[in-house]
Queue: 3 jobs
Job 1
Amino acid sequence: MVKLNRIYTRTGDDGTTGLATGERVAKDDLRVECYGTVDEANSFLGLAVVACAAVPSLAEMTDVLRSIQHDLFDLGADLATPVSPDEKPGQRLRIQHAQTDRLEPIIDRFNDALASLNSFVLPGGSPPSAALHAARTVVRRAERLAVQLRRHDSQHTSAEAVRFLNRLSDLLFVLGRVANDMGAADVLWVPGANRPQS
């Protein structure tokens, strides 16, 4: 159980922070950068929740996003706790394969109602869609960092973290289109739109 009764501890004044194991690392350590970016993604998801909650027709989407915010905290805890060689299944809070797999039918359900695309979608359209696209790009950055962390410290980093972030960014793309009047209000990229005519 998490208990926070003091917000400042002064232990980070030297530029270090504690992992969940108690190990002290630099605040710019790749692992800290990775779970910090997951936290940032969760904050952007919170903005998307607020934007979607203001639109009654997006109530189901709002519920989905709120649920995923809990998964992102699980993921942050996972990344903040290096995997130990003798770790037993269920011993630590880890993002689970089932949490990633749960996203796929949600993607399919929302995507099935959308028309196919013939160009890339510009972030924007409606406020909820813009917020979802912003969240998507932060999730993509978290994914890139998780890939980098896996490459540098694969023995101590969950592979499921990468899968979850990859799937979540796909979901946020689809939800961004749904929030744009089921794609009808999508603003499509026009290649070379502002290039001078020769």
Job 2
Amino acid sequence: MRKIYSQEQIAKTKSIAKIIGDSSNVLILYELMTFGEKSFNELKRMTDINAVTLSKKLTLLKMEGLVDCRECGIENRYFVTDRSEDFRPLIRNIERLVINK
């Protein structure tokens, strides 16, 4: 028998797809999961995402609870939260496909 998904399950699926379906989000999560806490400028340099887009993506990831930041002098330092751990296996699989080919 085919399963009928609840509206909550559909909304969660759309939210996850919005995150993992965007290459910038995946790059940001990969960078932070692999190399740890980074400043905005470090993320910009390492991911080659323009500043406006990076700012929007970090805001989205923060709203989703996957990334947070702390002030360190005049800059913010970004890091992954415990909630992002659910994405770690996916990020690792993507890493294997891209880097270990």
Job 3
Amino acid sequence: MRFALIMLSSIFAVVSYVVYVVAIFRGEAKPHRTTRFCTAVITTLAMIALFAQGSTVAVWLSVIFALGSLIIFVLSIPRGMGGWAKTDIVCLVISVIGIFFWRATSDPMYGFMASISADFVGQIPMLVKTYRLPETEVWTFYFLDVLAALCTLAALNQRTVSELAYPLYVIGLDCGIIYLILRRHTPTSLGTKQ
């Protein structure tokens, strides 16, 4: 059962990135460049930290997130928005400080928590953009990531902080983003812009 949940989590995560890439090419999603840069760097660091901790479950979700984030960052350069506003620069600097904290410690758990904190700060420009322009994001991308993280949680044998933290972070953040995207829609018009 555990293996099936890990596979299901991986499938949801991969499909979420396919959905988002298709939405970018269709012009339905406009990823925020600063956020996508921070996400690509930080998900890679989170993946490395999970490997260093010997994670056997959450690490696979972080591998998919790292690869998907890199692809979306590359696509955000010609097809995204934002990148040089004051908020963007401040969040980028804070995220880079978080990355330095990760590199300065030999404690994988501290590094992992620093990467999650830096990732959240890096998400702020996208959260602001989504609040102002919810039509520039697609809720299905984030919903599929929530399903992936839930499957990862269900597959855990050990309920340690290092195993629980990343999936719980993904669930909390992505549910908040889904709310920002859908808050202007009525329950019967989730697929159409109001």
